[in-house]
Amino acid sequence: MKFAFVFPGQGSQSVGMMNGYTDLPIVEETFKEASDTLKQDFWSMVNSGPADDLNLTINTQPLMLIAGIAVYRAWSGLSGAKPAFLAGHSLGEYTALVAAEVLSFADALALVRFRAQAMQHAVPEGIGGMAAILGLDDAIIQTVCHEVTERGNGELLEPANFNSPGQVVIAGHKNAILQGIEMAKSKGAKRAIMLPMSIPSHCSLMKPAAESMRQQLEHVQLQSPRIPILHNVDVKPHSDTTSIKEILVQQLVSPIQWVDTIRAFATAGITHVVECGPGKILAGLNKRIDQNLQQLSLTDSEAIKQAVNSLR
Fold first, then answer.
1. C-alpha–C-alpha distance, residues 158 and 147, integer Å
2. How confident is the model at residue 11 (pLDDT cuts 50, 70, 90)?
3. I want to staple 279 with a disulfide (CB 3.0 to 4.6 A). Which of 12, 25, 192, 221 is the partner?
4. Known active-site residue 35
């Protein structure tokens, strides 16, 4: 039996999402460690909200990193076996880097807080956005993005997340997205909806953020991974730390290749994919990508204990 761990990114957060882990002391201890590092009480935030604070990018990014590492530490503390591969969806890639011992937890916390700020500053509020296109082939969506961008008004539209067959997220200037939604519907999309996000992640509008990250990463120490990570940009493992830094820069302006990541797991002989953190968003995507892969979600302490036993 060969299994991989995957870590969720933004979108999985909710008030009370750690309630199912309260009998595992390492979870609250991990939150306290992070709160001491960033001088902010994340444990109170995740338990009491308000939701608006939870959903601020500068809070969401460290919060999801903390949650993923807390659950991974709980898994390890219960003598869970080491996964054969790791991957993370967008922000979740940083959680994978900590689990693989590429980044220290403290460095990762500071880095994702910086990343969130850089992304927020890259595009002024109201200028950009993202939309989900459902029920349309990837190639048609790419054509839609190309046609909207080529109209020559200086606004761009690009695929941002290839989440599952028939679910692609697009990003760019807000007006371009609205045009893309209408064009996608005219070409047969089942649904095309704006997402409640002001930051157009994983597209060319994030170039200023990518340059900021490049400079910031020069001051961060990385180690070679103890567990191979399939990265969002190229779906390949990298052992060279210089390459990993470049991948993290490129991730901000490149689409998330989640479909290819899950298919690569299957090709590598993975039989079980374990979502490490609160929620089941990735498990739902993964099922649509490959129904033969078994999906496990570590949504509470009981789920962790059952998964530890079944994956020994």
1. 10
2. confident
3. 12
4. no
